[in-house]
## 1
Amino acid sequence: MRSHLDRQWQKLAPTEQTIMLQLAQETAPISISKISHKIDMIATESINSILSLKRILSLKMRFLLETETTENGNFISLTPILKEYIKNRYLLKSITTNS
């Protein structure tokens, strides 16, 4: 399973990886506008809102994101398996490397 996820991760564009890393840090589903704003704040390259939205839609079409619609709007999150994979593989690794 991990090798399959590794291959899928490598196929993602850098912007998509940034979106996935940010979503892995969220504790609850987040609105598309909020995640786009967060991505704009942390991105090393200039990512406009349209590109962020296209990348989010691309991830959704590949079933890498879960969506939820409420009276408060549309929210996205990672599937639990992907969230755990990204946390263990990339986020925890960077924390222990920086310590």
Note: The beta strands are 30-31, 65-70, 73-78.
## 2
Amino acid sequence: MTVTATQTISPTTEESWEPSWEPNMPPVDLIFDDGEPLETYRHRIAMNLLIRSLHHALAPRNDFFAGGNMFVYYSTQQTKNKDFRGPDFFVVLDIDGSYSRQGWVVWEEAGRYPDVIVELMSPSTAQIDLTTKKDLYEKTFRTRNYFVYNPFNPNSLRGWCLDPNQRYQELKKNDRGWLWCSNLGFWLGSWYGTIQKDTCYWLRFYDSDFNLLLLPEEAEQQRADAERKRADEEQQRADTEGCGQKQLRILSSQ
């Protein structure tokens, strides 16, 4: 007897087929605060000084984001390793800056990394700022302008700029000891003065004509001083004209 073996094959269609794997998706449960404060109160003032003065100088533009002491997420491996990176100050240009962020998440920002970074050094962070972070910003972030400054040492300012080969070249200071930030079109240099009752050499921005980029309250004080000076000059001119007219009346009555 001949036995014929048969095999039943279930038809498969493109509609019923499902992949057995899924692509790795970026994490969504990101941490935006590790609870670690800046080194000192002066460091926090220095960070806010850079952010606020830049916002005031570039107002009312909405094509940039300036942040500080915020995590920058750039890879899923980084989040798995909890290798958080939070520049003390950074700027990203040519993006939608009309809304705030808790942190900078590269894969949610069309792959954009910071264009400018400033690390406010201290004795405990200087080694990392000048090695590990510098390498990261050069080779991974490709951040064009990177600067370091210790708010307790006015001679500590250093900076680098990516060359055509995407390698950092150290910037040379001008005769005032300032460094040029090509991405922003501003100088970075020290300024001696008092901010929030702390007097020291602060890191400040200057425009291409060497004018200090002011904080909003400084700009308002400058405007008030100019208005008061104008009023004083007008009063002095009025007093002078009044004295002249009085002299003429005296002479004409004689």
Note: Residues 1-23 have pLDDT under 50 and may be disordered.
## 3
Amino acid sequence: MRKIILPLLAILLLTACGETKTRKEINRRKAALVEHQQTELKKAETELWKTDSLLLIANKELEAMTQQVEEHKKALKATEEELTALTKLRVKRDSIRTQYEALGLKIRYIHKKQSE
């Protein structure tokens, strides 16, 4: 009977110690995840501010160029270069807007994961 009890006790002690190591590792990973989420959130918020400024500038440029091209169209003086530049500016603005929206979604997702 002793031959069975001693190895059984040794195994129980080893597995109990292993669980605390595992629990510590899980807690460390959770803490690292929280820290990583905070870091990513700050980076995304900073990038969102920059992108917002770029988007405002691009919208103003597009509005001014659109008015100018519309005036030239009415006077039948619009050139191919003006129309191409207007199209490129629209593409640039749309690209910045897409980046802005993606960053906003990333921030919302991080907030959602933090609240879970």
Note: The mean pLDDT is 89.
